[in-house]
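In keeping with the milestone schedule agreed at the kick-off meeting, the structural modelling team has produced records for the first pair of proteins. Each record is given below as a sequence line and a C-alpha cell line. The laboratory manager (R.T.) confirmed that both were archived under the project's standard naming scheme.
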Amino acid sequence: MSLTNRTILITGAAGGLGAALAVNCAKQGAKLILLDVNRRKLTALSDSMTDMGLPAPGLYPMDLSAVGIDDMQTMVEVIESEFGGLDSLVHCALSFEGLQVLEQVAPHEWLKSMQVNLNAPWLLSCACLPMLRKSEKGRLFFLLDDAENQTGAYWGAYGAAKAGLVALVAQFDASLSNTEIEVRGIYPGPMRSDFRAKVYHSEEPMSQPDPAINAERIAALLATDGAASGGEGTDIYLDLR
C-alpha cells in the first residue's frame, strides 16, 4: 500500500485532523492540494511540512460558506492544469459556532452551517467526480459525527447538516456503484480539536486522542487497493473509535 504520486484534495486542511492527514499522506509520497478558509494557517502548515523535508503542498484558500458553481469549476481547471487530475477527495471541513437552543439560532448562522457542512461537500464532490472517475483508485471520503450530535438538543444546523451528510454518503455510494470510486463515511470519534473544545469547555484537551492517530488510519484507507463502493453488504460507514 502506498500513496506515491496519488493526488489528494483535503478540505479543512488547516484543522487538527486535516493537518495531521496532510502530513501523513505527504510522508507516504502523495501530492497534496490543501483547502481551507484560513490562509494564514494554511501557509503555516505548508512551512511546517517543508521544515520536515516534505514537498510543499498546493494551497487553495477558499471560503466554502460563499462558494458557487463557477468557483468549483475554476478549482477543477486549476487541479487538472497543475496536477493532471485527482485521485482522492477527503472532506474534513466543518462549521460550528457552538451549542444553541434551536429557535435562537440566527438565520445567517444556520445558512452558513448548512452551506459548509452539507451543500459545499455535495457541490465539490460533483465537480471533482469526472477527475475521480479517471483515476484507477478514486476515493471520496466524508468525515461524519455521532448520531447523538446529529439529533440531540442544541446541535442546530450542524447536527441537521451532519445527518444530511450521512444520507449524502449513501446516495453517492449507490450512484457510483458501477465505478471504481470508493465512497466512505468516517466517524473519527472524540479527539483533540478546536471543535471539541467548543463543546466540552471543562474537558482537559490533552485527555483526548491525538488527531494523528485517526489521520494514520484514514491515510491507510486511502492507500488500500480495495473498493467499498457498490459492494453488496459492504458497510460504507466506518467508526474509528
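The second protein of the pair:
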Amino acid sequence: MKRRDFVQSSLWTAAALSVPQFKPVYATAREGAVADVAAVTGDGREITLRGADLRDLAAKLHGQLLLAGDRGYEDARHILNPSFDKHPALIVQPADVPDIQAAVNFARANSLLVAVKCGGHSHSGQSTCDKGMQIDLSTFRSVRIDPAARRVWATGGTLLGQIDKETAPHELVTPLGTVSHTGVGGLTLGGGFGRIARKFGMAVDNLESVDIVTADGKLVHASASENPELYWGARGGSGNFGVVTQFEFKLHPMKREVIAGQVLFPLAKMRDMLTLWGEYAPTAPDELYVDPTVMQPPGNAPGMAMLQVCYCGAPADAEKALAPIRKLGPVKDTIKTMEYVQVQRSQDSTDTRAIASYLKGGFVGKVPGELVTAMVDGFHGDPRRTTVLFFQHCGGAGSRIADDATAFAHRYAIGNMMAVVAWPIGDKDASVHIEAARAYWKTLEPFTRGFYVNDMAREVTAKDINENYRGNYQRLVALKTKYDPTNLFRLNANVTPMKA
C-alpha cells in the first residue's frame, strides 16, 4: 500500500492542486464606487483603506485585485490546511513583476499586514492573514529551461512539479521537495529538502540567483557576484526580504527513472524499524533517501509502519543499498523502477477541505535508544483522529556544507522528525487533538536541536526563531534592517530589524 493511499484512508490528505501553465489574468480597473475596507497594519492597528485608493491600485494591475465577495476571493484566501480560516482585506493576484511592485508599494504606503502565498502549504498559516493584504502568486507561474547551460528559471508562484515536468525530458533535475504541488518559493527560501537532496544538495545549495521585490518596491537581483549578502540570506532566511519573482537553479544529469516505493511493517515492528533507520540513516549512500513513517488512523483500522524509499544511483548498486531495510522482513514491498516525476507525485493528494491538521517538528542529529523508546511509548491512536510520526531523511551532500555558507544553519541533521494529528474540520475537539500532539512532542523535543522553518508550528515565538537561526542570526538582522527596516514582510520565520 502506498503511503499516500494509507494516509487518505486515514483521513489525512493534502490538497490536490493542478499544475497550471502560466496564464496572465488581465483585469481592468474596478468600475463604479468601491466601498472603504477595514484593514490592519503589520503591528495590529486598525485602519481603513479608502475605496478610491483601492480603485487606483486595481487600475495599475494587469492581474486581479479581489475583495470579499468578489469571484475568486474565497478560493484565493484559503490555504492547504482548512483549520486556518482567515479573511484578507484584499488579495492581489499579480500577472507580472510590476503588479508585485504595485502591491508592495500599496502595502508599504498603508503599513499593511502582508502575507505571500505560493503553494499554500504553510503549516503555521502565514500565507494568509486576517484584514491584511494577501499577495497570491498562483497567477504568476512559469518555467524556462536551458538544457545546455543546465539552468532552469521559475517565476515566484511556480509549483515544483512544473519544474520537474520541464526538466525530466532532458534527463536533468534539481532537488525540490517531495510533493509536486508545493510552492517553489516557500520551499526554497526555507532550505528545501527533497528525495534527491542527499545526492545533489538542498534547494538552497542549487539556487544560483534570485530576483526579489524588496520592501521599497525595487526589483533586486542577487547572486554570488551581485548583492551576494542578500543572496546568502535568501538561501534559508525565509521570506524576510521581499517577494521573490524569479528563482534560478542549476540542474544535474539524472536518468528519468529511479528505484522507489515503500516497505511496510505491522505497527508491532515500530521499534525495530525506527532503530534500524536510526542506525542506517547516517551511513546510507547519498543516492538513497529513506523516510520512516508510523500511522494510526481513526476507528478500528490497523496502524502501520513503513519506510519510503527513493534511490537515484546506479541500478546495479540498488540491491546493496536496499538490503539493510529489507532485513526486517516487511509484510509488503512495493519498491520498483519508476519515473522520477511519478515518484514526486506519489504523495500528492486529493482533497483536504474536510480535514484539519497540526504539526510539530524538529531536527535530530542522531537517533539514540532513548528517543526510540519515547517515540514508541508515546505513540497512541485515537478513534477521532489520525496520528502520524515521520522523518524526512537529511544529510548526504547537504551535510558537507558549512553552517554559515547559507542562512540555513542545520547541516548536522540526519532527519527532520515530525508528529502530526489530523481530524475532521468542524470537530469541536480540535483543541484536544492539538494538545495531544503537543503532549507527545514534549517527550520527543529534548532529542531535537532546532526546527525546519517550513514546518514551523503556529505558536512558535520570536525567541524560538532567533535561536533557530543559530550563528547566522545577527547577520540576518543586518540584512533585514537594510532591506525591510519596517518589517513589512513579517509573516514568515521572522527576523526583527534593528530600530533606527
